[in-house]
Amino acid sequence: MTNKHQGSCLCGRVKYELSGDFQSFFLCHCTRCQKDTGSAHAANLFAKASTLTWLQGESDVKTYQHLNSMHAKSFCQICGSALPTIAESINSVVVPAGSLDSVISIEPTAKIFVSSCVNWFRYLDNVPNYEELPEQVNN
Q1: Which of 8, 35, 62, 130 is most buried, most CB within 10 Å of its CB?
Q2: CATH number of the domain encompassing residue 85
Q3: pLDDT digit string (tens) for 83-124?
Q4: For the chain, what is the domain count?
């Protein structure tokens, strides 16, 4: 039986369903992923031979293909949220983990391109955790 996963963008205009299973879940630290997420890494799931169905808002989805590379990013043109991209060259749908609304059971498979990792990401073990926005930011 094929698993079905649902997801959406931040503004809710785009919704999708993926029919298939995730084979891998990579935390990519390459500089391209840093630029397109604005963070230390991208968190992408890969689903080979899966079917992506846009349930609504397909006309609001744009895809940027970086020149001379396999790096592509699909996003909602209204809110900018990352959305799945069909990677034909590897017969996979690449799904940004944060775009999923359904729970997944796969854990990250690997951190990749760690030689490009930003220096501050390596020292997070002693950073405090908060359930919500900390008080010092609210003042």
Answers
A1: 8
A2: 2.170.150.70
A3: 999 998 889 999 999 999 999 989 999 999 999 999 888 888
A4: 1
